Amino acid sequence: MENKELKQPLVQVKNLCKYFQLNRKATLKAVDDVSFDIYKGETVSLVGESGCGKSTTGRCMIRLYDLTSGQVLYDGKDISKLNKTEQKEFCKKVQMIFQNPYSSLNPRMTVKEIVGEGLKQHGMSAKEVDEKVEQLLKTVGLNKDHMSRFPHEFSGGQRQRIGIARALSVDPEFIICDEPISALDVSIQAQVINMLKNLQETMGLTYLFIAHDLSVVKYISDRVVVMYLGTIVETAETEELYSNPTHPYTKALLSAIPEADPKKAKANERIPIKGEIPSPINPKNCCRFAERCQYATERCFNEMPQLHEIKPGHKVACHLTENM
User: Fold this and answer.
1) Do the Cβ atoms of 227 and 44 come closer than 8 Å?
2) What is this structure's pTM?
3) Residue pair 95/168 in contact by the 8 Å Cβ criterion
4) Once rounded to an integer, what is the mean pLDDT over residues 63-86?
5) N or C: which end of the chain has fewer CB within 10 A?
């Protein structure tokens, strides 16, 4: 990959906040001051436990949610300030593969209608749509006989392939993969991941890969962003993060990856995280992980740590690493 300093990021997320006002006193801070860049042709993974704000971040980046504050720039343009023509072009360039293949496909539509819907919106004739849908199904490992069937006639893995074909239909540049394999059997997961990697190489795609399975993340990612309770706690290139995790939360996450080799499994000490994840409603202005961190000091409970660089490209939000 070229020197990133010389390139403009394809996607820039700047101080992104997404709050949900539950009532006059309660604000759920789903995403709180999140910033990261994604460069053309790379896969950036967003990881963390359920409820940390990963999917909300992805949905804000595709304008399914309006931002509370902050910016998302695509190719240097603020996506909230696009005119109608630019908005239509943005919808072509950016697509999403959803988590649940059972609820993300319209049960009343045939596969041809589901995959061809975006093509019709962008002005293709009926004959062109038929040809393109057939080609897309072939690309994702299905065939033209599947075009007239409905979603309930397919397995979970096949449904997710239909969802991927739908995302590819308008020739996007950037795809947000929102836990695309979490609802699938393990054997099918490997097939879908390998397919996504092959598509990236052949079509020059850029991915934001949202996941909580860290073994999959290691295989598919160029860089990893670790989130905890709406904030980023660590970000680095994949190899660096897995060999040198620095934030206590990242260390605990990586220690939980299952190891097939019994000797290695015995040598790997599991780092337990005490307590339950705190509520994201009206959180205190301090380290969100402090209550569960065995290394927390008084400062951690009173002051929010800032994301700072400890090595080139490796950033951590932890008071204990400020002098590293």
Assistant:
1) no
2) 0.89
3) yes
4) 92
5) N
